[in-house]
Structures
1.
Amino acid sequence: MDIEEKVKKIDEVLSRGVGEFIDPGGAFREKLLKKARGEYDKEIIIKFGVDPTRPDIHLGHAVILRKLRALQDIGCKLVFLIGDFTARIGDPTGKSKVRPEIDQQEVERNMMTYLEQVGKITLVTTPSFSWIRNSDWFLNVTDIQPKQGFFVRFKTTFLNPGSFVGKAVLYDETRMQKTHLKKNHVVSVSLANILSTLRHITHARLIERDMFQERIEGNEELYMHEMMYPVLQGIDSHVIHLIYGSCDLEVGGTDQTFNMLLGRDVMKMNGQEPQAVLAWKLLEGTDGKEKMSKSLGNYIAINDDPFDMFGKVMSIPDSSIINYFELCTYMPAADLASLGGKLEKQEENPRDLKMRLAEQIVTMYHGEAAAGKARDAFIDTFKNGGIPDEIPETNAAHGANLSDVLMGANIVSSKTEFRRLIDEGAIRDLEKGEELTDVHQKIERGLTLKVGKRRFIRIRIL
């Protein structure tokens, strides 16, 4: 990539789909330009933090990951921060209720799937990529819970892992700062560090967040651990600066702007050059109303099979077409403007545009061949009333509850959804051509079902 192409990419990253860009004096942009011209030798560190509360990354996350790949191509280093500690608190962003605590084992499982999925979009090799978890500095020696029945070796001595000294050795040997980044010194955050930070942050500043104000006005409970979340996220930026030598930019959606700006404040109070903040517009979900969210069930996961992904894109409302093209594809800005004008003047059929959109998105995550098959299967299934050639299959014991089987196969998310679909006549036995009506139905034979508008499942008896 020559310098002109890099400059063009810089301008596009800092403008396309951007909701807010806080870069006082243009300092961060100047770093990028110098990097493109070969005049900046230091690493440019980009922080992107994710709490692994659910196993799938969806298209809303992918909007940011694709931008991060563009920054990597310019020469930046992505630090992918896994918030395994903060995931157990829960970011209150956009939430009207307290998020329940998540089991550490679930966090660990979700974390590994995240690392597998980001590699579909970003570079995951050095020097363009590094990852670290924030439990590396937020957990303390006394938080270590060693397994029973083994001892910790320190030089020529075996230590009881339940003792303070044993825990200290185990703590030191399991910090990613040492095992992955080969640092000699481990950065940790103590309660004293947190209290020192809180001395510079007022209560009024924290409760000015929209979601906190909505809780207060609605007489909902607002707990201190939730108010601490933005502070901990800010401390993360400070620690990344200490570990990696800088934290030049933090990226996220516009719903994260408050948290990211607090990171600037924490860095300033510690005498560090504050990070720039780049917040991209949020991608709405398939309902066209709320932001894409797994908890709302309006998301498209990048791990969805091609047929399901294609069908979900086809289900978005016409009003979302241009936003999806802008945020989820590489369509040039000029073509976007032209397409928007044609759609407004009704010179383009929205269904045809969604077919193009769905094919482009499926191609990005599954390849051109899979996208072509998904398109053909969709046309055959929904235009011609057919059944897709490849239907997900699952096994079930004779007499098992159908609701449990569908939940286990991730066809429905809950028994509440199953009951709603039954009440709406939206679960159909394709072999008999009948709608299912019994919410307590047992598996008595093999079934091929259509669930809702896009989901199919074949159930075989064990």
Note: Residues 95-100 have pLDDT under 50 and may be disordered.
2.
Amino acid sequence: MKVIMNDAAFKKDMKNIINYSLGFLEGVQAGKIKFLNNLGIMTKEILEEYIDSNARVNPEALHHIYEWYKVGSPDARLYDINYTVSNLGLSFVSTMKQSTSIKDGSSVPFYNKAKIMEEGTPVTIRPKKSNVLVFEDGGETVFTKGEVVVQSPGGRATAGSFQKVVDTFFNKYFTQAFLRSSGVAEYFSNADVYRKNLQSGKSSGKTKGYQVGYRWIANAGIR
């Protein structure tokens, strides 16, 4: 029995398969940027809705990150959620915005309302236009000539509550619910696309691998 092997053709096929694999990995790396941007947009929206819903359930703790009397309303948020994509992956940062609404009994907006209440910073109130300070406390009108220090301007439940909600989202909801319900976890558990395109990759090499890898990760669907 005599077996004749086309050594040149075999070497060419193996070279193309290796290049196809390398191209696939490079395509995945390039497509990852697009995927992370898509994931960032979706996560930002879900996180904001998550915060709003928690605020409606627990307004005592989260009223400070909204305009007065609009707790949980998307158009009254005093916070911004932004994301960046880098070589390290996807990262999120939150910032607080200035309030423009005026609380009943006041004449000006509470400067740095969200930030001060979130950090639990004591506030000192002094009379400006007269020698007497007038304010409401427990439904009663109080008159005083001295300054008043409010140790917990938003109430004891507010300090750090925004950060706690954000931490809970990423530590529990994001990993345990969002990645599964969105379809991302299931999608990445199956990379059959590499095997299905291997035959064409054997003839096309790196170019085919790059296209397959890029499309696979860039088009990772979020239901």
Note: The chain has one domain: 16-218.
